[in-house]
Amino acid sequence: MPVSTATLGSVSFLSQLFNPDVSSLSCFLNHTKLSTLYSKPSLLKKPSSSSLYNLKVSASSASANPKTDNSQQAEAAVTAILDNSVSTDEIKPAPAPARRSADWKAARAYLHSGFIYGGRVEGFNGGGLLVRFYSLVGFLPFPQLSPSHSCKEPNKTILQIAKGLVGSILSVKVIQAEEESRKLIFSEKEAVWTKFSTQINVGDVFEGKVGSVEDYGAFVHLRFPDGLYHLTGLVHVSEVSWDLVQDVRDILTEGDDVRVKLVNIDRGKSRLTLSIKQLEEDPLLETLDKVIPQEGSADSDSLTTSNSSTIEPLPGLDAIFKELLQEDGINDVRISRQGFEKRVVSQDLQLWLSNVPPSDNMFTLLARAGRQVQEIQLATSLDQEGIKKALQRVLERVP
After folding, report:
1. Which InterPro entries is this protein grouped with (predicted)?
2. Please, what's the b/e burial string for 8-41 (b: 16 or more CB within 10 A of its CB; e: otherwise)?
3. Of 270 and 89, more confident
4. How does pLDDT run across 146-160, given as a tens digit for each residue?
């Protein structure tokens, strides 16, 4: 089948941009209709008449004037297209080289303006999608795809998803446009961020789906009211659980459904920070029953009620107790109960003042080390703030 010069030019452009091997080029040929030389962007208003190419030729010819700014001409051309304010009736399309030069100017205008472009997916290779931009073909790397595709079809591989996208129109942003090196790179994530980041606020709670899990945390895709997952944020390892997390993979797995709270939005870097643990109360700010489930529950650990004479204090507590009794207003300190958790949270001794209201001048402290948690009753005439100051002084004295 004869192949037109313009199409061969597009294939040549791809080979210079991506340096594909024979298999990659074959992949492109198999999934691209070579007879399709131009597809109109779906998100742009259709010009009132005739061809878009003449508009770009006009910008190209104007650049011969040394007083004319090429980038301004190109941006004006794109703006004119969007505003549907230019008519090019009865003017023939420019030759292919001039058209491609004008299209590169348009690409740079999209890059600088941040306009969203509707690009047709012409094919794909092992690294991403091939997207039509007027007479040019650019590249959309797989990591720049919106998470909605993989979340919608979680059982498909990325190449199967890519195959299903051939022929569709994606909303994308130009993130690189270098005519000399022939690099035209798109991002669907950036286009989605522009649309959906205005709909979120710090403190919002989302249903999410865990994407990749790394040593430093997990990336979670956020589900929006339309049922699709448009944005992705990071749950840092420190925000996964109140427990000490050694390996995020022990708690979260790719594909898990989770609830997350949005705790920070960096609009400059298009980044979201999420938290799982902030949707739960810190168990050590309550009672031992909150830390250790009650006997008979499905997940119950060992819980023992006893007096201080039969429970051996955690290492370091004896010294703290002696110092506490030296503080004015503290009359008695004793261990009332202890329990054992399923996992080791920290080997170091941790001591908290519970926020449970006092009863008969009895405040509750919680101590934890390893799997062991002990509940301590503190008889005192001090108020909560006074106890905190006394504890601070004691901990400064105890080595």
Report:
1. NA-bd_OB-fold, Ribosomal_protein_S1, S1_domain
2. ebbbebbeebbebeeebeebbeebbebeebebeb
3. 270
4. 999 999 888 899 999
pLDDT tens string 162-214: 999 999 999 999 999 999 999 999 999 999 999 999 999 999 999 999 998 99
pLDDT digits (tens, 9 = 90+) for 352-381: 887 777 778 888 888 888 888 888 889 999
One domain for residues 106 and 183? yes
Percent of the chain with pLDDT over 90: 39
Confidence at residue 84, expressed as pLDDT on a 0 to 100 scale: 40
Looking at 169, 193, 217, the residue that finishes a domain is 193
The count of domains in the chain is: 3
Residue 77 burial class via C-beta count within 10 angstroms: exposed 0-12, middle 13-18, buried 19 and up: buried
- 184 plus 254 within the same structural domain: no
**214 vs 48: CA distance, rounded Å:** 51
- Same domain flag for 236 and 182: no
Q: Is residue 374 part of a domain?
A: yes
Give the model confidence (pLDDT) of 250-263 as tens digits.
Answer: 889 998 999 999 99
205 lies in some domain: yes
User: Do 109 and 168 lie in a common domain?
Assistant: yes
d(CA 128, CA 236): 28
Q: What CATH number is given to the structural domain containing 252? A: 2.40.50.140
To 10 degrees, what angle do helices 70-83 and 53-62 make? Answer: 160
- Residue 108: helix, strand or coil by DSSP? helix
pTM of the model: 0.53
Expressed as residue numbers, the domain containing 153 is: 100-193
Token digits for 20? 């594909």
**Parallel, antiparallel, or unpaired: how do β-strands 271-275 and 229-236 relate?**
parallel
Does 183 share its domain with 244?
no
The tokens of 213 are what?
A: 């899990």
Q: Quick one: 327 and 393 in the same domain? A: yes
